[in-house]
Design a protein that fits this description.
24% helix
Length: 150
């Protein structure tokens, strides 16, 4: 799995000009799934995301995690995170899983985050043409790949 995490002041997903979800303060997690991903990847990534100390404490130092701030999380599927641009100018998405594998993994990931957060996680709609708007706070943007664990 690969994610791009953006700390945000607010975010919203719109589909066909209808707002389908939003958050006020927290993070947006863009998620891509590949065929080698397992429940262990979901568990590790969930722990890493909720433990990230990317929110300011009373001294304006990034010392707090999402659990400590009570912030919200929005998860949006984004298969393009595994784009390969090695050859030519048209990205290849062969590394991204097909929906029959990716959708259940996406749903399990969202459920895992909800369990740890103890509240609902906002989502986009898997496979839909979505417009995602957000106010990136900081900006703080972090990329995590479960295979690299950097």
């Amino acid at each position: 799995m690969r994610v791009v995490i953006q700390r945000c002041k607010n975010a919203q997903v719109t589909i066909n000009n209808v707002a389908v979800s939003s958050v006020q303060g927290g993070m947006v997690v863009l998620l891509a799934v590949e065929d080698t991903d397992t429940q262990a990847d979901i568990d590790w990534l969930t722990g890493k995301i909720v433990g990230l100390r990317i929110f300011d404490d009373e001294n304006s130092v990034m010392n707090l995690n999402i659990l400590q701030t009570g912030g919200d999380i929005m998860v949006v599927s984004q298969f393009t995170l595994f784009a390969s641009t090695k050859k030519g100018n048209r990205p290849s998405y062969l590394r991204s899983s097909k929906p029959d594998f990716a959708l259940p993994m996406y749903e399990r990931f969202v459920a895992s985050l909800q369990k740890v957060l103890g509240k609902p996680v906002a989502t986009g709609r898997f496979g839909a043409d979505m417009q995602v708007s957000l106010c990136n706070d900081g900006p703080v943007t972090i990329i995590i790949d479960t295979k690299l664990k950097e």
